[in-house]
Amino acid sequence: MSKLHVTTSVNGQPEEVLCEPHQSLLDVLRDELGLTGTKEGCSTGDCGACSVTLDGRLVCSCLVLAAEAEGKEVGTIEGVANPDGLHVLQQKFLEHAALQCGICTPGFIVAAKVLLERDPNPDETTIRYWLAGNLCRCTGYDKIIRAVQDAATELAHEA
Amino acid sequence: MAEAHDLKVIGTRPVRPDGVEKVTGRANFGADLHLPGMIHGKVLRSPYAHARIKSVDVSGALAMEGVLAAVCRSDFPEETDDLGRNVIARDKVLYHGHAVAAVAATTPLLAEQALDAIKVDYDVLEPVLSIDQAIADGATLVNEEMHTNGDASQPASNVAAITKFERGDAEKGFAEADVVVEGEYRVPMAHQGYIEPHACTATINEEGKITVWCSTQGHFDVRTQTAAILGTSISKVKVIASEIGGGFGGKLSVYLEPLAVKLSELSNRPVRMVMNREEVFRATGPTSATWCKAKVGAKKDGTITAATAWLAYEAGAFPGAPVGPGCMSVLAPYDLENFSIEGLDVLVNKPKVAAYRAPGAPQAMHAMECAIDDLARELGMDPIDLRLKNAADEGTQAPYGPKFPAIGLKACLEAAKAHPNYTSPVPEGCGRGVACGFWFNIGMQSSAEVLIREDGTVIINEGSPDIGGSRASMCLMAAETLGIPYERINAHVADTESTGYCNMTGGSRTTFATGMAVVQACEDIIAQCKERAAMTWDIDADQVDWDDGQAVPKPGVNADVDPLSLADIARAWGRTGGPILGRASVNAQGAGAGFSVNWTDLAVDRETGKVDVKAYTAIQDAGRAIHPAYVEGQMQGGAAQGLGWALNEEYIYDDNGVMENAGFLDYRVPVASDLPMIDTQIVEVPNPTHPYGVRGVGETPITAPLAATSNAVCDALGFRVSELPMSPPRLLEAIDSQEG
Amino acid sequence: MGDYAYAAPTSLEEALSVLEAQANDGQRTQILAGGTDVLVQMRSIDKEPRTLVDIKHIAETNALSIGADEIFIGAAIPSAALNENDELKGLLPGLIEAADLIGSTQIQGRATIGGNLCNSSPAGDTIPALVVVSAVCVIASPGGSREVAVGDFVTGVGENCLESNEILVGLKIPRPGNNSADAYLRFIPRTEMDIAVAGAAVALTLDEGGTCTSARVAIGAVAPTVLLVEAASAALVGTKVDDDALNAAAAACSDAASPITDKRGTVEYRTKVVGVLCKRAGGIARDRASS
């Protein structure tokens, strides 16, 4: 099988990879680019642990071929914090103890960040339905929702 | 023991020490390790639930390009135990998905394609797929050599063991009762559902020294089990625990590690093996499906006069269902004179069950807490009042023998009664259900080393993989003991060569037992600091106090000196004897039982059978909540798992013993939109045997929700559904047959 | 066994010629839009290597137009994009809702109506909704273009009338009038993420007095393909779509259903619930058409 040459951009950085046609973006991020922050939980798009943004849209990277990232902007957990420090969401997750084992946390943060960029003042139901594609088995979601609500409030104050 | 108001940092909610790594994606979990030259292993799994293996031929796989190793049963020592027989099948495959062979290749796709080239010759046998089938006359035997309780004078059986607890005379007690209630209940097989699949990377060098990186709840056990299955000694095996993405009991046994080591040996390359989600469901360790009967009798005033329970648990392919703990838990909340409990450990052709958070208790307590609920209804008593009337307390003899020391069941019940979520009326169209929860919690062995840096900051090394924030609790307990700020302490989960022996993270033992070791190691540090200060001041060590992080002369001691902080003492340690390190190891006794009370308000759509959970409240005795946010988190997480199990989660098998819903699409765990906020209240009845009063909190939370949910549905519908999950088709059928 | 390959043609012509060239080489091809079904199946039930032909870079499959008489939705437009289009949501609320129900936010970022239709699952959420709004499939073939009513497109479980050298370009839908509206409801055991256990779509038109002048009712996940239930439509036409009419329509749906028992539901359950959904969806469509 001959490899494909894919030119893409990850967290604002240009990247070139050689990959096989069937390889997912998830595989390539983790195994070729060493960005292991995005996790594999199911490979069927049912758990959200592999959430990334693709041209700003929230997607499961296990259901995107690496080849489909050609010419696109990929956003992963590694790009959420900025040079000055943690993103408000990351800070709130820590303050609210919104993680226990932490495996789902990158996916939740990427997903919640997209939500707050589109809807700066979401109510509880909106948050829960937006995040329904991110499974957490440890927390029962309560503290995650509170962390997102608190982050929304703080981001609104900063704005 | 310090009173709550004397504590300075315990009970606060600082950010956990591993937190930044986890929210930025830097933390390394089981599949995140990348070694140069690493190749990929995959497992060939049985397509049959029950079959004799006539032959296995891996030569076809080895002939393929890119395949560097292949193993089957002949590559492992024949003399082994059930775990070894589970890791790779020997004369029989005993469940669909049972590992039969494994290969390692340069890419995961090549490894997977190579599995198709392995030839296995099976003699297919009839599978046994339920307790009913397993105990029927003339049942096919899962293991022809199995005799109940080892009694070879009886015919071979699928019932591996029968456990009994008895006290008094239950029949007499029922005769004295004014009201007797009984029920029969079915709970399905369920999976822990951790989001991180099993993963490991293994290497072995030419001296036979093995290194394993893996996601596990107990890396010392990985060492023991891997060494045993491979027939090597533990001195040749080093295990490094990665961060773990959930376990709940399902990551206490090895599945991949011995295979990965053997493949590494044969290929001379590091081998990574990661399960996919389907394999996790089919071939790891879900918990027992059960068939339980509960009967309870009481006088008109609510005094329970007798109770009995018959608890049959599916063990899967090998004996070891958690029916013992189920028997221990089923009547634990009650002070009874007369009871009889019988538990059966039953073999079936399904995966070997593993622990799932309070293993055995949710199923048994579901049965009894539902019966108690029906009893309350019959007596016209409030369900909490009925429980208060019969509640176990300090001095009550537990059904499994020992007398309870101080426990918090009554405190939880009283707190529930007074809680606004309970005093408020049940919302329109909803039902409310209450249940008690319990777990005995364990102690076992832990070690801790505390190292001081030259600047007086502190490193804790311990061996408890952190599944829920335990490093934060270790730092809090150390900060409290040493009297220094939390931020000056860091805790590490060290590998098996770098810290003293430690039992697994499970049994709700970590904050209790490893915490005890950490506290004692800090006390060792304090003792040494007092000696160093005494040396500095030229007085005796027993004339020195440790107060608020500093050495000070005891009151009345004649020494005009300034206090010496840990930093001061460290800075000068060259003059007083050298670097300072402390250590402790414990075989922790006196783990305190943890009781809870949960209730939920929910509505049932009578046209579709769908349940909408509107509110959930959990009250639990934590002894002392070291980090309250993580205690609350355990309560909420266990509640969510219990709700999922009660309403939608189940293993669905076809007639051939093949799981039909081996994925997160059709194995339906709760999603964020399924649940409301989960309100919690922590009660603290300190456990006198722990320096800070800690009781384990991790497991109790899953033991009440199954019954709380069942009782709420019963309240909403006006009749009981005794089989879980109460999924919409089951509820609608029950509703229609009541109305029809 | 061949190998996997990937192609991203930038025009319909190029796409058709890729399909033909691959076929000539004896290589299996599969159209790739959102990938949320294809990639899952590729790793589980259908592991045969193939050339994936990505149609997301073609102008026509990405076209979205709302005209005076007709709406066109390109086959490659993700559900999330459709749900951001307020005008489209106002005209076809049921269809766009159906698209919004597929999976999670992440799935909706990729999944397309075209792909959902071509996957041809008995439970595909958009299909009943497409049927009741009388959608027509626009198909590109080597010989030119052809059109197939969506009700004729799916021919069996996982099967449709597309040849392997053809591409679904998009869906053409007559623009609904002012007093017309559609609705789609499905039953799932959780609140999100599940495959529909049963689904019902209703599109209807009311006159100024609130009497139904036309209706289409389609049910999904209760037969190998979506069923258009004429008897349910008949039960609504000429009525004010009140409880009696809706109950009659619901009964007609339950009668028409021929579901299976599987891990998601039993025959009895699906039969009963599809009726309940028809009743509830009918009520929503009526309320939308009146407002």
Automatic annotation (TrEMBL), chain A:
Keywords from the UniProt entry: 2Fe-2S, Iron, Iron-sulfur, Metal-binding, Oxidoreductase
Name used for this protein in its record: Aerobic-type carbon monoxide dehydrogenase, small subunit CoxS/CutS homologs
Keyword Cell membrane found: no
One Gene Ontology term of the molecular function aspect: metal ion binding
Signal peptide: none
Pathway of action: Alkaloid degradation; nicotine degradation
Organism annotation: uncultured actinobacterium HF0770_13M05
InterPro entries assigned: 2Fe-2S-bd, 2Fe-2S-bd_dom_sf, 2Fe-2S_ferredoxin-like_sf, 2Fe-2S_ferredoxin-type, 2Fe2S_fd_BS, Beta-grasp_dom_sf, Diverse_Oxidoreductases
Keyword Iron in record: yes
A Pfam family reported for this protein in Swiss-Prot or TrEMBL: Fer2
CDD domains: fer2 (cd00207)
Record domain 2Fe-2S ferredoxin-type: where: 4-80
SUPFAM superfamilies, alphabetized: 2Fe-2S ferredoxin-like, CO dehydrogenase ISP C-domain like
